[in-house]
Specification:
This protein has 8 helices and 4 strands, in the order ααααββαβααβα. β1 and β2 form a beta hairpin. α5 packs across α6 and α5 crosses α8. By secondary structure, it is mainly alpha-helical. The chain has 2 domains: 63 residues; 126 residues, no CATH class.
Length: 200
């Protein structure tokens, strides 16, 4: 691939302007994504590459990163301050979530578990954490966890309810397919442990 350095220099300047708008902890990743896309685009348009890069989701990730902001202590619900920063640092929270239009959204891409049953519980715990730091209620809608499990490719439909029932000590509510489940004290401890692992 032949690179036109004048075009590349312009692209880098544009990328740096966009990256300045990103939260500090996301700038490096944003820079990598945008620079890669910019250089591929400029190379293709200058005729030095004969293929068009396929979309692999990086553009949407870059858009997501550039429009989000870090979560600050003032964003946290008062009940969440029992856990942050005492058990989970704000830096760890910002490695897991970002804020966009007042809504907290996940940044983590993997659940660090090969077992579907464990991954499902991790999805539930992280959803409860996200909801808890924003609303003060460390709970989740079962239907939302099912959707997220599908997204993270860890949905085991045949054992979905059994996984919750087998981990009942983590929840203060019995399993209900259309309901909401809150975390028990044990569940909150497990939530913190999983969050710390995923934030590494």
């Amino acid at each position: 691939m032949t690179l036109n350095f004048d075009i590349a220099n312009e692209q880098v300047d544009r990328v740096l302007e966009i990256v300045k708008k990103c939260p500090d902890n996301l700038r490096e990743k944003c820079f990598e994504i945008l620079l890669s896309a910019a250089l591929l685009t400029s190379s293709a348009s200058s005729g030095s590459m004969s293929v068009t890069p396929e979309s692999n989701g990086d553009a949407s990730a870059a858009e997501r990163i550039t429009s989000g902001t870090d979560i600050v202590m003032a964003d946290l619900h008062q009940k969440a301050k029992k856990h942050v920063p005492a058990q989970l640092t704000l830096e760890e929270v910002n490695r897991l979530f970002y804020k966009e239009d007042g809504i907290f959204l996940p940044l983590y891409d993997e659940l660090k578990s090969q077992k579907l049953s464990e991954a499902q519980i991790r999805v539930a715990l992280m959803e409860a954490l996200k909801n808890g730091i924003q609303s003060g209620e460390f709970s989740f809608k079962v239907s939302r966890v099912r959707e997220l499990c599908s997204t993270y490719k860890c949905l085991d439909s045949g054992n979905f309810s059994a996984n919750f029932k087998n981990n009942q000590p983590y929840f203060s509510d019995p399993y209900s397919s259309g309901g909401t489940m809150a975390l028990s004290a044990e569940g909150k401890n497990r939530m913190i442990a999983v969050a710390k692992e995923l934030a590494q």
